[in-house]
């Protein structure tokens, strides 16, 4: 493990940090919302707003971590602030000489992946980071990287507006001029919050979208199923199909991951043709996809056969088949239960020789 160097402008950086009067203050919703969004967008179990003072890193906001602070010499964020202009990404801490022997890597919280975007003042001082952490090696997709950087800018702006607001509040009693300035900054804060809400809405959409195919993800599909149930009467039939690309691991191993991604994109485009609406097809994860049919089971089964044949005839230059499990939604059950029964039918299709549609067993 390498102890993080001290920034060349450390004295000025600490002075700037103290000017914000933010260390050891209670949680605030603006910052709590930002770590929640960062964790969701980056699909990470831990997200933090971390501030680095002389001896420690202290968390203004955190999700997925119980500790309120750690020693500075162990802090990944103490390395991130050395380059305020860029996000520090550590795909696997155990393979990085700076962190391999770090107790936070070897023991709880068992950090393997880290990405931290610096929180930078208008004068260019990096006070800490907005960071996400995972317990397994990984990386960020381009859109996730961009979103994390955008959220760090929002956190820096929230800190600046908080500092100005508090300073003006302290001086409000001294003159009417300060009162007018406070109102001006409050107006700016409201405008900034409105922009943040709009940005958060866009980022929330990212949490429901698969970054490779552009299809809805499992979370968005579950919501679509709930909405379909809500608008249907009790007897309206709903069917969920779980589709798996046969021998997809072999495609990746033999032809490479770029070719695997090309196959996933082609399958996604084919499924869009059979989707009844924007939320009725989704990527479940890996090489698995979901389809929602608001139709009786025989009709849904026929549609699944059409899908299977269409994918088998895709002009990809390599043989491609899919196995499909089809399950009827049962009134009152959770989406996860429907998915589980479709998954059982899917594995029955695989055991039966693949390249087929199998119906879930009925009670």
From TrEMBL:
Cofactors required: Mg(2+)
Top-level division of the source organism's lineage: Bacteria
Domain GGDEF: 236-362
Name of a matching Pfam family: GGDEF
InterPro entries: GAF, GAF-like_dom_sf, GGDEF_dom, Nucleotide_cyclase, Rev_trsase/Diguanyl_cyclase
CDD domains: GGDEF (cd01949)
GO molecular function, one term: catalytic activity
Gene3D superfamilies: 3.30.450.40, 3.30.70.270
Name under which the protein is recorded: GGDEF domain-containing protein
